[in-house]
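User: My collaborator sent over this chain with a note saying "see what the structure looks like." That's all I know about it. Can you take a look?
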Amino acid sequence: MVVLSVTTVGALLASMQGSALLIVLPDMMGNLHMGFMTMLWVLLIYLMVTTIMVPVLGRVSDMFGRKKIYVLGFAVFAFGSLLCGLTGLANLGIGGWDLVAFRIIQALGGSMLMANSMAMITDAFRKEKLGFALGVNGIAFSAGFVIGPVIGGILAPYGWEWVFLINVPLGIFGTFWAAYRLREPKWEIKEQKFDWIGTILFFIGLFGILTAVTYISFGDPNMMYIVYIMSVIGILGIIAFIFVELREAEHPMMDLRLFRNKNYAVGNLTNLMNGLCIGAATFLLIFYFQGALGKDAFTAGLLLVPSGLPMMVVGPLSGRFSDKYGPKLLTAGGLALTTLALAGLAFVDQNTSLWIVCVLMVIMGVGGGMFMSPNASSVMASVPPAHRGIASGARIMLRNTGTMFSLAIAFPLVLAGVSQEDMVAIFLGTGQAHAISALISGLQEAFMIFAIISVVSVVAALLKPRGFT
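Assistant: Without extra context I'll predict from the sequence alone. Here is the result:
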């Protein structure tokens, strides 16, 4: 329970930050004279950095100890949050790019927390109680998602900077709490060489692909040359990484042989596809509530609550049932409910009753709660203790990669009929009717595409691939 108390603080910190930030975006854009593209970088750079660094830091924690990395993660996250908050107070007049830079530091701290959270819980709990423990930890994540918009709405009148600054005392508390209460796992940490070549190739490959995906998200045809160049660099980097990890590395950064295990492989595949299906959902719903319906930031935040509350209730229950009956039907059922909700959201418009939208969000929340804990349990229980750091990191990396691709699909559809100037005007409450109509059309297309992909994820969850052990 000690581990749960510490990881709960970390999960609450990370999820509360993300949802609260969405609420103050209009204020931030106005205060820093930030363009729409810069605003996207503020959001996406955190996701991009954590996607790349989580598996690397997971491997580092396997080699040198989870406690050290986790404690450092709290401290770095708090420091990065302080710098982000001071950006608003200083207002250097460079359009928010200093905030983007400081978000990188914040993301490094977040990566250290993410890479170790599930691994430490798996170390601390027996297999028959693991699903429940991961579900309880998921409550903190869902609670942060629920209260984040409320916190953001409360702090917004005092300045958007406080959405970052509130993390500082929480991060300091987490640093000392983790340092005092955590213990290193009982399994022996063997001396190993760090796989520098594999790590560098992994960084180059994933950085290239995610940079290309990010520029696709912007939907700017003038930047397609960057997409082509970075795609080639990324693909070549990943190919070289796979070759080195399978053929050359004595102690690989990411042991790809883990994917020979059926539970590990299928669990990560469905996790990737679920990230692809719902990764952009929160952004799309914010666009719908603030852009299409003209709700203020605080009201839009409260309207996100129906998707978070069910996850808080269903997550631990789903984890407990998966401990008893296995994860397969729960994960498939959760993905099926997600598919239903996405298909329903593909038909919402300005005239749709809010209660219908909220019911669809509740269904999505229940689906997420049913899926997440059993999926995490099946993946983490399938690997030996010495590989749990990299297994946890790889799982988060794949989910975040799915989210990045989700945004790359959604944003061009949403922005296809809306210029960046019109999008900024919509968020500031001065959007024109034709732009709002184009926005809704893009939202509907995006949700329908994700519903179709989600159908495939249900099939994948039910598969029993041959050739796996």
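A starting point for your reply to your collaborator: Confidence is low (pLDDT under 50) at residues 465-469.
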